[in-house]
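Lay summary. Proteins are chains of building blocks that fold into shapes, and those shapes determine what they do. In this project we predict the shape from the chain. Here is one chain we studied, written as its sequence of building blocks.
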Amino acid sequence: MSVDMSAVDETKLNELLGRVVTDLGAVAAAPLALLGERLGLFRALADGATVTPGELAERTRTTERNVREWLAAMAASGYLSHEGDERFRMTPEQSAVFADENSPAFALGGYQSFLSCGSAEERDRLERAFRDGNGVGWHEHHADLFAGTGRFFRPGYAAHLVAEWLPALSGVVEKLRTGGKVADVGCGLGHSAVMIGEAFPDARVTGFDTHEPSVEAARELAAEGGVEGRVAFEVAGAKDFGGGPYDLIAFFDCLHDMGDPVGALAHSRERLAEGGSIMLVEPLAGDRLEENLNPVGRTFYSASALICTPASQSQEVGRALGAQAGEERTRQVASEAGLTRFRRAAQTPFNIVYEARA
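And here is the predicted shape, written in a compact code that computers can read:
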């Protein structure tokens, strides 16, 4: 097919090409940003002092010529600041995004997650999934996806979970302070479960996940945090995890990935203690596509197409809610599971927190 260039609006074409060039630069900058982290380049710049390529190379035991090109690429991306005379530095804002893993703005986990989907092998799996509709299992992805996902969500959880989300639920904080029980379903690497355990020493938290390597990593995280006696992890699915009754059952950014979210919530309803709550942390989304055509929606739709929807399709039922399901569809799933009370309890620029009760 050949485009009739006489029908093309040159102004609109140039605007689109501008966006494409910006995106190409972002695609190229992403592996360089991760390389900068691995080599310690961002950390070496985090003090805010200006450096030359040679000084940074000496600090990090790298090669000056390569470092010079990396610095130029990062400065052109706005990830570093060029101070003239081949001198560069990181502003406090840039350090918060690229150098401080405890910052709520830390972003390199997202780069790691998306780049894990970029190999030829991953693209072949996705092409197959698009053709046959049978999905791509979470366990089929590169391990960088698991680590990157944990690092991507951890800063937001650290900033909001204990301070805002749990207090927004009905009586949950009071129960946790006096020995409540928590199930973290689809716990991944265990960051959310450990945070709850650290904040509420009298509570007992159990994380469940079907991915055994993630469960093993979560156990190590609990041991490192000194909470392994109060925070445990088990290999189990969302429809067969045991224990309880639980005062809180939490799903952190994972319900939409599940093949049978209705079955998962129905099982959770049966495991709830009287007056207990189910907390659903889901990506920020409106109910209509038009509401999500923005940078946040773009990120989550892309994650959904690459990861979330194929993951759900690989499981039984294959509901494939997607990462931009929105409140209406999430409420419908909760209703089908027999949960009669559902409300939006909290919200951040990246997440909506729902509370569902029997």
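What the prediction tells us: The chain is about 50% helix and 15% strand.
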